[in-house]
Every structure is written in C-alpha cells, then in structure tokens.
C-alpha cells in the first residue's frame, strides 16, 4: 500500500472556436487563388457579380497573422498581393466573404 505511485490523468478536449462552417476553396467556384506555388505575386479572383463584403487574413505555420486586409478592394474581381517579402514556405489564407468562411493554403517559393 505504501508503494503506490502518483499519477496524473490529462484530458485533451478540442472545442470549436467559432460556430461558422468553413468551406475549402478547392471545392467552391466562388474563389480562385493563383498561382500556387507563387514567387512574388498571389492573385485572388472572386467570382461575384456584386462587390462582396470580404476580408482576407494570411497566417504562417506558427499561427502568426502576417496580413489582415479588411475590407478588400477588388480590381476586376481580383486582388493582387505582393508576397516577395514572405519567406519561403507554407501559408494559410482565411477568407470571410459575405459572412461565409473559406480557407486555402499556398506555397511561397523564392
């Protein structure tokens, strides 16, 4: 009875941070992100007849927000982003368009 070792039980619970539904861009015709991989400029095409209420956030693999544009301003339904100052690697893009969330990833290739 005196030889019992103490132990610790840890429960990991994953809770949703937001209640919205996220949609992968690959399966949605509203958004086109190109070229991917990119070297200097990344373009976002939003296929919408009206000017959408939209914002864009770019996050690195450490979860650090590198770019937050709200609202975005489109030229011929396209937003061009200069990525020449980004390091080589994988980045995540979060789009919020007319209240819906969309996620995509891109590779910055020097």
Q: Describe it for me?
A:
This protein has 110 residues and is mainly beta. Helix content is 0%, strand content 44%.
Q: TL;DR?
A:
This protein is an all-beta fold and 110 residues long. Helix content is 0%, strand content 44%. It has no helices and 8 strands.
Q: What characteristics describe this protein?
A:
3-stranded antiparallel sheet, 110 residues, mainly beta, 8 strands
Order of helices and strands: EEEEEEEE
Taking all Cα atoms into account, the compactness measure Rg is 19 Å
* Main sheet overview: 5 strands, mixed
Average the pLDDT over all residues and give the rounded result: 78
Ends apart, CA distance between termini: 64 Å
Poorly predicted runs: 11-17
Shape: globular
Number of helices: 0
Strand percentage lies at: 35-45%
Structural class: mainly beta
Order of strands, main sheet, comes to: 1-8-7-4-5
Helices and strands in order:
Blueprint: E1 22-24, E2 31-34, E3 41-46, E4 54-60, E5 65-69, E6 78-82, E7 89-97, E8 100-108
Parallel strand pairs: 1-8
Antiparallel strand pairs: 2-3, 3-6, 4-5, 4-7, 7-8
């Amino acid at each position: 009875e005196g030889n019992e070792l103490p132990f610790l039980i840890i429960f990991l619970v994953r809770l949703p941070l937001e209640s919205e539904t996220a949609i992968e861009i690959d399966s949605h015709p509203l958004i086109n992100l190109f070229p991917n991989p990119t070297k200097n400029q990344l373009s976002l095409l939003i296929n919408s007849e009206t000017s959408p209420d939209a914002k864009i956030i770019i996050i690195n693999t450490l979860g650090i927000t590198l770019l937050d544009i709200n609202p975005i301003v489109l030229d011929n339904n396209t937003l061009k982003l200069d990525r020449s100052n980004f390091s080589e690697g994988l980045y995540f893009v979060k789009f919020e368009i007319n209240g819906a969330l969309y996620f995509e990833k891109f590779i910055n290739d020097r």
